[in-house]
Specification:
Order of helices and strands: HHHHEHEE
Oligomer: single chain
Number of strands: 3
Number of domains: 1
Largest sheet: 3 strands, antiparallel
Strand content: 5-15%
Helix content: 40-55%
Number of helices: 5
Shape: globular
Distance between the termini: 23 Å
Length: 138
């Protein structure tokens, strides 16, 4: 699947903001979630990634967005760009198992009033756990 340069950068920015410090396989899995949604919803990367409340890194109240100004000098940027390129040039299999969603269970529980997971989270839909992320279909 070919990406425009703009979509390529947007996906890589999403990978770095969502999965910086995760293993390479975890970063690729995040990029695969974007790709899986693009294919399922027949939308381009920017529409998928910037959809309201879909990727927390792009939420307006997300402090990580402020890191974008320093992003291109970070080693994490090169790693995220490599993960994005590997996924969208078919150089890697999908480690997410076809996932369309992911979350960090610990961070999600910590950020919710009742410390529970969102209603769309079903253990039966978990396809992989990589690094700190849990990947699933919904």
């Amino acid at each position: 699947m070919k990406l425009t340069d703009g979509d390529r950068f947007l996906v890589a920015m999403t990978v770095v903001l969502e999965a910086e410090g995760e293993p390479e396989l975890g970063q690729q899995a995040v990029a695969w979630v974007v790709r899986n949604r693009m294919m399922m919803w027949r939308q381009d990367a920017s529409t998928v990634v910037l959809a309201r409340l879909q990727f927390s890194a792009w939420n307006h109240d997300q402090p990580r967005r402020r890191a974008l100004s320093k992003l291109f000098a970070m080693p994490a940027w090169r790693e995220a760009l490599a993960a994005t390129d590997a996924v969208f040039s078919d150089q890697t299999a999908d480690p997410s198992g076809g996932a369309t969603h992911y979350l960090r269970e610990d961070a999600t529980r910590a950020g919710r009033k009742n410390h529970d997971l969102p209603p769309w989270f079903k253990e039966a839909n978990v396809t992989a756990r990589i690094g700190h992320h849990t990947f699933l279909t919904a």
